[in-house]
Amino acid sequence: MGTRPSFPARLNNGPAPVAAPARPRAALPPVAAPVSARADFSAMRQRMVRRLAAGGVQSAAVLAAMGTVERDRFIDSALVAQAYEDTSLPIGLNQTISKPNVVARMCELLLGAELAREGKPARVLEIGTGCGYQAAVLSLLAREVYSIERLRGLHEKARENLRPFRLPNVHLLFGDGMAGYAKGAPYAAIIAAAGGEAVPQAWLDQLAVGGRLVAPVAGQGGQQALVVIDRTAQGLRQQLLEAVHFVPLKSGVA
Ligand code: SAH
User: Fold this and answer.
1) How far is the centre of ligand 1, averaged over its atoms, from the C-alpha of 53 (Å)?
2) Distance of CA 249 from the midpoint of ligand 1 (Å)
3) What's the start-to-end Cα distance of the chain, in Å?
4) Domain boundaries, the chain
5) Is the CB of 161 under 6 A from ligand 1?
6) Beta-carbon neighbour count of residue 86 at 10 Å?
7) What is the whole-number distance in angstroms between the Cα of residue 223 and the centre of ligand 1?
8) Active site residue 59
9) pLDDT, averaged across the chain
């Protein structure tokens, strides 16, 4: 202990960009220019943060986390130019990385209510690791992040994507998140990145008193909306928020 730099510092400590060798002026442009590309991405990321703030994200902690995690590192190279646009993008196996404003909005909701008074939520469970981007954002907002993914290919991809960030508080799990993850319970916050017909009972059972769950849930006609459920000492309190579009929550592993 004590020698570890703070998380934002670690997040910026990805693999060092390789310095491009000096080349004559007439040379073809390099295929990849890591140094300038990283600088461009940093400027794009700060613009994204300003758009998030202009769009209503208020939490300084969430804005700082969104400004720290390099979303471009989670996007396939063919699509990387769009890494900081407010759009969801394919990550393979028919799944998508969520839009930045949805990630920020959900994180802000998690930090809301009773959690805010105690500072960082203690333990967070994320259902649907996907490429691992949101888990990295959550790692800056929570003490421990448990993130579960049902597709082995994506679980492994997330592991690879997150390796350079070296986040000791992110625990990637392979399994069916419909059952939650009892070993880490109770959670101060549970966040789902995939939407089912209803919130599985296991998630409610694993939510701490004072804790909050944020998940997309399909209503009549299949249209999803964001649902926030708070567990209070008196019981569960539910709020239905705006319409959203998440990939379906599926059971079993593949
Ligand atoms: N948070 C992710 C978003 C990924 S999309 C990111 O930042 O990239 C949602 C993910 O939920 C998909 O990868 C999908 O495979 C996964 N998923 C769907 N149902 C699941 C379940 N029952 N358990 C775990 N993961 C599930």
Assistant:
1) 26
2) 7
3) 38
4) 18-248
5) no
6) 14
7) 18
8) no
9) 88
- In terms of DSSP bridges, do strands 224-232 and 235-244 run parallel, antiparallel, or are they unpaired? antiparallel
CATH class as words, domain 18-248: alpha beta
Segment 156-185 mean pLDDT: 97
Burial class (CB in 10 A: 0-12, 13-18, 19+), 253: middle
193 lines ligand 1 (CB under 6 A): yes
- Closest-CA residue, ligand 1 atom 11, reads 128
**CB of 146 shorter than 6 A to ligand 1:** no
For the CA atoms of 140, 233, 177, 195, the dihedral, rounded to the nearest 10 degrees, stands at -90
For position 208, what pLDDT does the model report?
94
Q: What pTM does this model have? A: 0.86
Instruction: Please state the separation of Cα 202 from the chain's center in Å.
Output: 21
- The burial of 222, by beta-carbon neighbours within 10 Å (0-12 exposed, 13-18 middle, 19 or more buried), is given as exposed
